[in-house]
Amino acid sequence: MGAARPGRTAAPHRDGPPVRGKSRSRVGHPSSPGVSDLDLQLALRHEPTDTDRADAVAIEEALDHAYPQIDGVGILLTSTRALLSDIERHDAGFFITCLCTPLLGPDLTERLPRYRPTTLLARETNGDLHLVLKRWRSRAAEAVTDAGRRALSRVVARRIVRTGFTLIMPRWGGWTSDPDESAELFARYYPEHGDRMRTAAAVGRVPSADPAVLGALIEDLGPWLAAEYTGVHGEKRPRL
Length: 240
Fold this sequence. Notes:
This protein starts with a strand and ends in a 7-residue tail after the last helix. It has nine helices and six strands; from the N terminus they run βββαβααβαααβααα. The strands form two sheets. The chain has a four-stranded mixed beta sheet with strand order 4-3-1-5. A two-stranded antiparallel sheet has the order 2-6. The chain has helices at residues 50-66, 80-83, 92-99, 119-126, 129-142, 146-172, 179-189, 194-205, 211-233; strands spanning 2-4, 9-10, 36-44, 70-79, 100-102, 175-176. By secondary structure, it is α+β, with helices and mostly antiparallel strands. The chain is 52% helix and 12% strand.
């Protein structure tokens, strides 16, 4: 089992240094001082079952309610076979190696490569935004309460900021999981869209129940970003 770590930055380097080791960080970020979401990745000896998923949801809810320091829990269930597979090497494998701290069991990083900020890494981590947008639109139509819209706006905003950063990651030559830094680095290469990405970073910290804010992310910035991402890095390899 691995837990995502608080965000750190791996400084850019012309030769593209490996993205690993002390630069390991989390995908999420604190919404306010002393409060953070919690991401856990479980590497199972078998393929996840419906019972496993139900147990994970129960644990997520229990942790979220029991500790005021936690604002949202996400438990990913994946078989070790899948995590170490060729198709996941530059997606889930990268998450395991560079964004997680091992807690229990063997450290899978010993069986994974040293990662560099390349187009391949960008494509396989976030090259499916065009597909995610479809799911977000369905969820937005079903989000009829303020709580539902806030929860979705946080998910959407954080993913957009991460995707905006990995769009420019190979050019910048490093890694960060800090959302504000991600937005500023994105704005350096796409200044005409910088303010919208800064807004996304702000919504990721303080979610909004305003349908217009959610709509701007899903119907404005998101589609542009998906098209630009595909044009620059290509689409992520399909998963079954």
